[in-house]
# Entry
Amino acid sequence: MSKAFALLFATVLLASPLRSQDSLMVRLRNRADSLLRTWREAQLLADVADSLERVRATAGHDTIAVGGLRIIANPSPLPLREAAERAWPVIDSLYGSAAQDLAQHPFIIRAVDPDSGVRRTVLHVGIELPWDLDVRATTTALLTTVTAPHLDPALADWLGAALRPTLHPRDEPAAVFVQLVSAPSEAVRGCFLGDIARCKDVLQVGDTTGLLGRWYATPAEREALVTESFSDYFARSATAPSLQQCRQHRDDACTALLQSLPPGSLPRPLAQAARLLLVREVLRAGGRDAYQRLVARPGTSIGERLSSAAGLDIDSLVVRWRNDVLSARPRPLTLPWWASAAAIGWTAFFGFCALRSSRWRL
Amino acid sequence: MTAMFRAVLFSQWKWSRLVVVLGTVAAFAIPLLSLQGAARVDRGALQAQELLRAVQSWGTLYPLLATALGLLMAIAAWAADHRGRHIHALTLPLERWRYVLLRFGAGFVLLAAPIAAVLIGSSLAVLTATLPTGLQAYPIALAARFAFAAFVAYALFFAVSAGTARTAGIILATIAALVLVQVVASIANIDLDLLSAAQTVLLLGPGPLAIFTGRWMLVDV
# Structure
């Protein structure tokens, strides 16, 4: 009898924390559901507010249509039509046939008095431009604010930057060249030296498993990453001992710390310019419908999408990208002839001043 | 004339030999120090960036050294004449412009030592280092830039030093007036940016101090 009682007592004792844990889970789930509901309501309200704001911002405005571009703007001396006529071919050459879809996302522009002292109502949609901008500056404003049509979150996330026409086409590959030479990653170095598999790794267009090992292959790179980029983050009490071990060249500690980072927060060895350049190469290779194909299947992997958009296999694409980068090596660090001539000229000029000095005219 | 130049050169060497020797040692050492560790066998991808950073940091010393050499050599060239109130120079059977030209030329000859030191030091540093693939060395371009910078600095300070106290006063007064106008314009909220304009004129394009700007990199992509 006493044995049965003891068993019952033990069961009750064991069950009570489980039951309380169970109720805690229910409470947390309810709270999560409630938060989700609130978030959805907030989203709905934000959409309504956005829509009302859009109506307010565009009321009484003119619409300028050039190609697929639609610009809704208040009457002003701002040379929007001329700027749109200049911007449209550039935008069209990037997005190809998809550029026509930009008509669904008009630019909302408010030309404002360049005198900052004048008060005006605050609008939360579109862009404000001073009405004294010239055609060149207005064109730049259009090119740097155009929104890539149908860009899905996966592609946007991989790119890490907005896909827009580049204002300085030579600067982008030159910047990537510098990255290939100087990025602190053996994988990037391998890519520079012609290892296409490494290029695919650092561009994230191939196998994306085990990124840490692929991107930062050596213990020294991982240690440098932890101690230089995440030192403050890992200095918290829970990870501080591991950080200390990592600083003492314990690779297992460094690797564990980096693996504990939230998904997507491992720094990419190549900056966004490298991926933008690859997409530009894809769009060049694939013709006018390349962009349409690129955004057509958001569910597939980035490598497949790029390959299908360009009409080339991914290896050939990466080879072309690498060749583009290598051919864009920045100009050698030599002194331009005019700088030498200017220096000689100024030396002669100052020497002449000294010769003409009035020191002896007593 | 050659004998005269030799005499002026010798006297100028006596006055400025400390500057020349120290400048030459510094000019030889900076490129070697900037590439320290670049010859390590275990150098990986990390070191390419570190190397560029180090070279860039050390690179700031070249224009400073060129300026310091130009300034000190110019001061040394005229110090004895200023002390003696130019009496010795006036006793020479020589026009002033010839005398100035001899002094000017002697300074250039003495500057050749630190310039050669930069070239030799840079070449030696590059030869002993193993540079990561993709990086290139520019010892000749660096030495040429250093030479032009040293010449411009020397000529500028030589001209100022050769002038009278009145000339120096006029130059200083002009600079002070520029600053004063800028301050007054800022107080009066007038859209006038004289200092930026002066900076553009002096430092950009074919400006007199443009040679001091830019990248002083012994190693770059």
Remarks:
- The two ends of chain B are 48 Å apart (CA to CA).
- Residues 2-163 of chain B form one domain.
- The first strand of chain B starts at residue 136 and ends at 137.
- The mean pLDDT of chain B is 88.
